[in-house]
Amino acid sequence: MIIILYNNFIIHKTQFGYTHNVDSVEKIIKIEQLLNSIHIDDIHEFGNRSYYPQILRAIYSVNLKTWNCKNNLNCQKFSCTDECFMETALGSNINAVTRALKLPRETIRRKTNELIDEKLVIRTEKGLFVTQKYRINSYKKSILFNEKLSNLNIK
């Protein structure tokens, strides 16, 4: 018997073919269900406003690259003021989001302007930043996601 680890699946090669470790398959199913719940939550929150969640995540991931504010408990929960957040966060831009999502620049520009109108993104001379409104919601979702992931006992 040969044991192969492929994409975190443990696969046993027997003389009759390949079989998957049942525990790994069950974990993959639970992970897929968890990811589906994220997508469903995005649809529930943003409805038919396509690309909003992806653009927000792309901007936020750039913002967090240099963000390092630990002034108070609010900062630790990502709910500090927008001004406080922007002091150390790295500003994103339309080109970075376009490259990250591989979508047309004009689509990203138009959707980003809509997100600015919705008060989810701020544009300054330093770049694009997600607002406190988005950060608080994202923080709450991250806590729930972490709890659900911990319940899967994935190592």
Could you characterize the architecture of this molecule?
The protein folds into 2 domains: about 1-50, no CATH class; about 50-155, Arc Repressor Mutant, subunit A (Orthogonal Bundle), CATH 1.10.10. Helix 2 packs across helix 5 and helix 5 (about 95-100) packs across helix 6. It has 7 helices and 5 strands. About 55% of the residues lie in helices and about 15% in strands. It is globular, with a radius of gyration of 20 Å. Mean pLDDT is about 80; it is low at about 1-15. The chain is α+β, with helices and mostly antiparallel strands and about 160 residues long. The strands form 2 sheets. Strands 1-2-3 form a 3-stranded antiparallel beta sheet. A two-stranded antiparallel ribbon has the order 4-5.
How is the topology of this model organized?
Elements (H helix, E strand, L loop, with lengths): L1 E5 L2 E6 L2 E4 L1 H25 L5 H12 L9 H4 L5 H7 L5 H8 L3 H13 L3 E4 L2 E4 L1 H20 L4
Antiparallel strand pairs: 1-2, 2-3, 4-5
Helix pairs in contact: 2-5, 5-6
